[in-house]
Amino acid sequence: MELSDLFSASNPCKRFDDNKSLFEGLANMNNNAILCLQTKALPMVKKIVAGYGLPKEKAEEILNSATLIFLKKIETGNYQFQGHALVTYFIEITKRQALMATRSLKEKVLFFDQLPETTDPDSESINKGQEAAEEVNFLLSKIGQPCEQIIRLQYIDGYSDEEVINLKLTKYSTVNSLKMKRSDCMKKLVQIAQQWKKSKNI
């Protein structure tokens, strides 16, 4: 859902002027109810994104991912309406998403650090970052599924283990099983990187 849609819709909150009706609309996946929730939350989400030092364009991404999580919680019954303001709860989800976005940046650095050095450490090439990203994508393409997907979800896309499980993004149904598989995948990835390094005489 694009942010532009939020402002092109004509008063999406007209039918959802109280929390109960908004909850019922979200439970029914009503588009206007979703627009209403996002419209109310957007100004605060922008402040949260700025507060965490994230790029302003992250606001849309965080708003949409938080919406998916909230709708999933409603669908599965993990969120039960008790008369409280839905936007308040929704904002807490966006805060966690923003925090996770900052962590994902750090995790990407740690992820790259776990791989053997595959470029000349003394290289001054301005394309070094792009080349490193291409190397990682190449290595991930060699590892096969489900390992490529599992590693990308955590280190590239920034999903938490809980989100991966709740949103059913993989075949794994528990956090522990997901973590165990990812650990095995990382070991496999390092081995592939080492073999690739030797084959290239790096």
Layout of strands and helices, then pairs:
Elements: H1 3-8, H2 19-27, H3 31-51, H4 58-76, H5 86-114, H6 128-143, H7 147-156, H8 161-166, H9 175-199
The secondary structure category is mainly alpha
Low-confidence stretches: 4-9, 116-130
Strand content: under 5%
Biggest sheet details: none
Total helical elements: 9
Can you walk through the features of this model?
This protein is mostly helical. The protein is 70% helix and 0% strand. The longest helix is centred in the middle third of the chain and has 29 residues. About 10% of the residues have low confidence.
Concise structural overview:
It contains nine helices and no strands. The protein has 202 residues and is mainly alpha-helical.
Give descriptors for this structure.
202 residues, mainly alpha, 9 helices, 70% helix, elongated
